[in-house]
Design goal:
The complex is a heterodimer of chains A (117) and B (114). Helices cover 0% and strands 49% of the residues of chain A. With 117 residues, chain A is mostly beta strands. Classes of the chains: A mainly beta (117), B mainly beta (114).
Chain lengths: 117, 114
């Protein structure tokens, strides 16, 4: 099993450009998440999904959109990148227990380092 | 909003010593508390977790304790080794609202000196 994989590993954008980050998991997990990690800020949840075709907002959703068309994939989109979106982005997935995503063990991918100039 | 406070932000110990990292949480309904280790350039990896119906959990050199009344939990690493050097994050579950499901502390950078 590859676990959680993320594409690309690094990316540099100019202000106003758009891009999509791809997350894939091969563990048949129901829940998937996108976080951003900034120095001294820990991990902050951007969006999450509790199943194919569903998405929900997290703590810092503004400027991002997501889609979960297939169970194994979770896409994060930036329509018009801003320097404030310079960060390391992590995708995670979890099995999907009856108690909900807040009690589920999350498995993280290796991250995408994004710089917006 | 709900938050998780983590201390210290940096910790330096000699190889073989113990290390303790402490977290406090604000949501009394939180019932799941994982700890993650993040090595340089990698994603966080779960090392141990505890649920609210348990006061302590051990896994070899790592242990976590939970005090629900005081709303704090701690990570204990005994007989530290250089490969324990990393950033450690605590987290607490949070139900509902716009903050999603897990609230993370800001991390503790642990350095183990040989």
């Amino acid at each position: 099993n590859a676990g959680v994989t993320q594409t690309p590993k690094f990316r540099v954008l100019k202000t106003g450009q758009s891009m999509t980050l791809l997350c894939a998991q091969d563990m048949n997990h129901e829940y998937m998440y996108w976080y951003r990690q900034d120095p001294g800020m820990g991990l902050r949840l951007i969006h999450y999904s509790v199943g194919e075709g569903t998405t929900a907002k997290g703590e810092v959703p503004d400027g991002y959109n997501v889609s979960r068309l297939k169970k194994q994939n979770f896409l994060l989109g930036l329509e018009s990148a801003a320097p404030s979106q310079t960060s390391v982005y992590f995708c995670a997935s979890s099995l999907g227990l009856a108690g909900g995503p807040w009690t589920d063990t999350q498995y993280f991918g290796p991250g995408t380092r994004l710089t917006v100039l | 909003g709900e938050n998780v406070e983590q201390h210290p932000s940096t910790l330096s110990v000699q190889e073989g010593d113990s290390a303790v990292i402490k977290c406090t949480y604000s949501d009394s309904a939180s019932n799941y508390f994982p700890w993650y280790k993040q090595e340089l350039g990698k994603g966080p990896q779960l090392i141990i977790d505890i649920r609210s119906n348990v006061g302590e959990k051990k896994d070899q050199r790592i242990a976590v304790t939970l005090n629900k009344t005081a709303k704090h939990f701690s990570l204990h690493i005994t007989e530290t080794q250089p490969e324990d050097s990393a950033v450690y994050f605590c987290a607490a579950s949070f139900r509902g609202g716009s903050q999603g499901n897990l609230i993370f502390g800001k991390g503790t950078k642990l350095s183990v000196k040989p």
